[in-house]
Amino acid sequence: MAGCCGGCGVEAARLQAGQRRVLRIVLWVNAASFLLMVGAALYSRSSALLSGALDNLGDALTYALSLAVVASSLRAKAWVAMFKAALILGAALAVGGAIAWRLLVDPAVPLFGTMGWAGALNLAANLYCLWLLRPWRHGDVNLASAYECARNDIADGLAVLLAGALVWLTGRGWPDLVVAGLLLVVFLASAWRVARNAVAALRAA
Question: Model pTM?
Answer without folding.
Answer: 0.68
